[in-house]
Amino acid sequence: MSIGRIAPRRLADSIVEELEKMILEGTLQPGERLPAERTLAGRFGVSRPSLREAVQRLATKGLLVSRQGGGHYVSESLGSSFTDPLITLLENRPDAQKDLLEYRRTLEADCAYYAALRATALDKAHLKTAYETLQACYASEASSDLSEEGSADARFHLAIAEASHNIILLHTIRGLFSLLKTNVVTNIGGMYAREKRTRSELTEQHRLLFEAIIEGRADDARFFAGQHIQYAQHVLSEKHENDRRMETSLRRSSPGAAAEAEAGKPA
């Protein structure tokens, strides 16, 4: 029987493993700058040359990038499965939006379920902050810029994914993040010009979902998450049908009116 020698583990290997773990679990997020070399070496209790070697290896893998002016950052493209051109295609196709909502319903129901089971005190505090920020957006009648509301909505759902402690769900939801911020699927308030009934429904749905997670009611959390997406499906379907009927009516009345209405649509 031949027994080979066990190669000693290099310190840089351990540093690489730790940094990869931090990226994978979301402690280090896409676009985030790593702490200064001296600070990070002190936290890990390692030498700076060993840290430099580990950082270089992660850069070679495409997990870290260097920027002008110094510093290393987690790659912003990490896990981004939806590029800007694809976002534009999805936004302009109601059938694709419907498919996206079906996908979200499956993902987010599971995220909510596991978040209710696994959320730590820190997770709940983070989720509470995201929830209160979103509710403040719904309560505001002054701002006409709804992009902030879309971002707050996406951050709330991302906080739920983080609290699920399932790294596959987390990175899948994070890959959708830019899509959720810009797509009308999330920003329902914008489609209805802040119609009070719609906003009231969304406020209540998020409250029920938030409370179920905070209180550890996993089955309720899954139900409310699915109900929330189902409501979005209904709203979008209704709007699409209303738009289609209006276009038909305009075409019947006069070709000029239809062209004017088409030109007035947001890009």
TrEMBL record:
UniProt entry tagged with the keyword DNA-binding: yes
Keywords carried by this UniProt record: DNA-binding, Repressor, Transcription, Transcription regulation
HTH gntR-type domain ranges (all copies): 9-77
Basic and acidic residues bias spans: 238-250
Role, per record: Transcriptional repressor for the pyruvate dehydrogenase complex genes aceEF and lpd.
Protein name (database record): Pyruvate dehydrogenase complex repressor
A GO term, aspect molecular function: DNA binding
Keyword Transit peptide assigned: no
Biased composition range(s): Low complexity: 251-267
Gene name tied to this protein: pdhR
Region of interest: Disordered: 238-267
